[in-house]
Each structure stands twice: as structure tokens, then as C-alpha cells.
Amino acid sequence: MRTFVLSSICALLLLHCVCTSSQAQVILNRQVNAVSGGQGVVQNIHIQYTIGEAVVLPITNGKTLLTQGFQQPEELPKLPPGATPVKNYVIFPNPAVTNTKIQFDLLTNASITIEVINPAGQNVYHQFLQLGTGRNLVVLPVNHFAAGIYTVMLTVNGNVFFEKLIVQ
Description:
The structure is a single chain. The chain has one helix at 2-19, and strands at residues 27-28, 31-32, 34-42, 45-52, 55-56, 65-66, 70-71, 74-75, 86-92, 99-106, 110-117, 123-131, 134-141, 148-156, 159-167. The radius of gyration is 24 Å and the shape is extended. It is mainly β. The longest helix has 18 residues, at 2-19.
């Protein structure tokens, strides 16, 4: 009887997982930069192909960059009301000596405030930024902080996130 109950619970859990739909976090909008291409049918299989730009000269430093010609920019779905606009909030290196980096993904364009609070509760650093959707990286100089444990407070559109930071 017990194995029947466990089997039934497992079957219901599996059925629930199969029937529940999930929403994608990121939508890939595929675009192709091509110099040529074509299409054809081989044994009832429709094939489309492109020949990408083989070599691109970037403006920044003039070095040659090889590419396949594909660009897949990320587009995030519209943020539902009340949803958290920040994902994957991390501070590294932690502990830090000279600089630390604050990395997070924004699901919408946002006004953010970064504050660092010392153990006495005093605000020792404050920065306001306007950032866009996607992965963001902010460098935080800590070389002028005394050694100790600090609290980094990230405020994004009214949502507040905390993380401990150790300065050596």
C-alpha cells in the first residue's frame, strides 16, 4: 500500500511538472548579417543557409575579429507589476582590497542607488546611476575604506537588496 501511495504521488508530481508552463526569462531575437545565402530542398527537408561576414575590422583597436555573421541580442519579456527587477545580484571579489565589482541583471531600465554602510551604521559611499536592461557591472573602489565588514545596499526602483562586503 505504501509503495502505491508513493508511486501515485510521484506520478502526480510528474504530471504537474509536465502540464505546468514556464515563462522564458530571455527571448533571443535572431538576426543575421550575411553577404550571401540561399535555400533548397533535399529529401523533403527544407534547408536555408547564410554566408556570414568572415572578417570584421572593429573601430576600437583595428585588430581583426573573426565572426560567423550571427547576432543574437537578448530581449527580456515585459516585467509584470510587482515583480523584482533584479536577478543574480553578486559582489566579487569578496573580501576586497582595492576594488570590488557589483554585478546584477536588470529586467527593465531602472534608476539605481548603491550605498555602502559601515558597522556603525554610517553611509560611507553613495552613487546614483541610470542603467539599462541586461547585465550590469559597477566597480566600487574600497581602497579608502577601513578594514571591516560593510553592508552594500542596492536600491532599484524602490526595491532594496542587501549584501555583506568584507574589506581587508
